[in-house]
């Protein structure tokens, strides 16, 4: 696990370099800049897009939480009115059912409430411990992120040379076999990614219609 944790940023950086190779080549030809400069610009653009998306997500989530806090009294009154309506409905329902069924339902409700009283504090305690553990892991995550970004840049900048040296160190048969494997993996990954995008768009449309 320790070795995997140490090498994971560089493995992810290698995978990102494979994905960014074509955009970097396009930037080289389009703007006539060296590969190192094109790699730096592409990585910074990717970082800006990801960081901007995360920032927008955090901003909108925070705004929704603020709106929720401001409208909490209204929401609480609505929930209370709904509970009162349910209580009245159940009271009318229990008035026409046999007493044996009413006592059984009351017993089941009491058992559920007792289970919630015992389970919810333990769950909150576990969530607190997990949150503390995650918070303690923030410095490690920051270091891993920096290593990932640096690895992505350096591997992307030297990606053609790395591939050329790897091909020179392998024989003709092994090189051809590796090329076939890479093509197959890229095609399979592209099909999987395309399918996930289509499914995500479909789910997005369904949820959007439902929320509207």
Give me some keywords for this one:
single chain; 212 residues; mainly alpha
For the CA atoms, what is the radius of gyration? 28 Å
N-to-C CA distance: 46 Å
- In which range does the helix fraction lie? over 70%
Largest sheet: none
Secondary-structure-derived class: mainly alpha
Strand residue content: under 5%
Number of strands: 0
Mean pLDDT: 81
Instruction: Give the ordered list of helices and strands.
Output: HHHHHHH
Write down the overall geometry. Answer: elongated
**Annotation field: number of helices:** 7
Q: Residue ranges: pLDDT <50 for 5 or more in a row?
A: none
Describe the protein's architecture and organization.
The chain is mainly alpha-helical and 212 residues long. The chain has helices spanning 2-31, 35-70, 72-94, 99-136, 138-157, 159-169, 172-211. Helix 1 (2-31) crosses helix 5 (138-157). The model has no long low-confidence stretch (mean pLDDT 81).
Summarize the structure.
The chain is mostly helical and 212 residues long.
What is this structure's SSE topology?
Elements: H1 2-31, H2 35-70, H3 72-94, H4 99-136, H5 138-157, H6 159-169, H7 172-211
Helix pairs in contact: 1-2, 1-5, 2-5
């Amino acid at each position: 696990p320790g070795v995997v944790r140490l090498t994971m940023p560089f493995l992810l950086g290698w995978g990102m370099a494979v994905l960014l190779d074509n955009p970097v080549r396009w930037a080289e030809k389009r703007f006539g800049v060296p590969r190192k400069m094109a790699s730096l610009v592409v990585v910074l653009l990717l970082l800006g897009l990801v960081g901007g998306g995360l920032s927008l997500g955090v901003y909108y989530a925070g705004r929704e939480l603020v709106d929720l806090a401001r409208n909490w009294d209204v929401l609480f009154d609505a929930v209370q009115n709904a509970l009162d309506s349910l209580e009245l409905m159940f009271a009318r329902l229990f008035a026409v059912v046999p007493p044996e069924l009413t006592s059984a339902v009351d017993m089941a409700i009491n058992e559920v409430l007792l289970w919630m009283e015992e389970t919810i504090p333990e769950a909150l305690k576990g969530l607190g411990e997990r949150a503390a553990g995650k918070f303690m892991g923030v410095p490690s995550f920051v270091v891993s992120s920096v290593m990932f970004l640096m690895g992505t840049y350096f591997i992307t900048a030297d990606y053609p040379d790395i591939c050329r040296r790897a091909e020179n160190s392998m024989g003709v048969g092994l090189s051809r076999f590796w090329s076939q494997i890479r093509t197959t993996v890229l095609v399979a990954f592209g099909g999987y990614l395309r399918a996930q995008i289509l499914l995500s768009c479909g789910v997005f449309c369904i949820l959007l219609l439902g929320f509207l």
